[in-house]
Structures are given as C-alpha cells and as structure tokens.
Amino acid sequence: MRRSDRLEPVQKVVDDTERRLAEHLAASERLLNGCEQKLNELIGYRDDYTKGFAIRAGQGMGARELADYQAFMSKLNEAIAQQSDIVDRARIDRDAQRKLWQEAAQRSKALTHVIDNWDQQEQRELSRREQVESDQRAQRPRMQVHE
How many domains does the chain have? Predict the structure, then answer.
C-alpha cells in the first residue's frame, strides 16, 4: 500500500471532524442571529411604547398610568438587559465554535498538502522506475545483437 493511501482514512476522519465543527458553527450562527433578532424586537417594542407614551402623556395622564408605565418600562429594560447578556454569551460561543472550526480546517488543509506531496513523490518515483525499466528493456536488444 502506498504511503499516501495509508493516510486516506486519517484524512477522512479529519474532514469529518471539520464538517461536524462547521455544522456546529452554523448552528451557533443561527442561534446568535435569533438572539440578536429577539433583542432588536424588544428594543423596537420599547421605542414604540416610549413614543406612544409620549403622545398619551401629552394629552394628560394620571399618576396610576405613570406608575404602570414606569413599572412596565423597568421590566422591559430588564428583559432587554437579559437578552443582551444572552446575545453576548451566544456571540462568545459562536466565536469559540469558529476558532475550533478554523483549527480543524487548518489541520485538514495541512494533511491534504502532505498527502498530495507524498502522492506526487510516489508518482515521480514510479515514473523514474518505469523509465529505468524502459531504458533497461531498450538496452537488452542491443546487447543481444552484439553477442
């Protein structure tokens, strides 16, 4: 068995690992995007609610409505802060997944390079041996003619 052929199972394992890590990275990206979208929705809702409140407050508002608004805004701001923390953790996880995938991709590329080099070296050696055999065959009839 050729040396480059012996590494093919290793290459398959390395490639499978890279593919699996790429899938994890894609899942992390989707999770991060979903978390960011939810955060943006909460911020948009808060902005819309604040604008609506400003209009209602301009028309007159009682103490009870003001207290309800402040309590609601406090809860909404808390939800935004929590969602922001979730986004931060999702981003950290995505970055870690990206680093793992990049390392696996580098290993795969390096192994592919080694296999390609070995394969080229084996092809050169095979060509050289074939050339030597061809040269030897070409010299045999000449030897027989001289005898």
Answer: 1
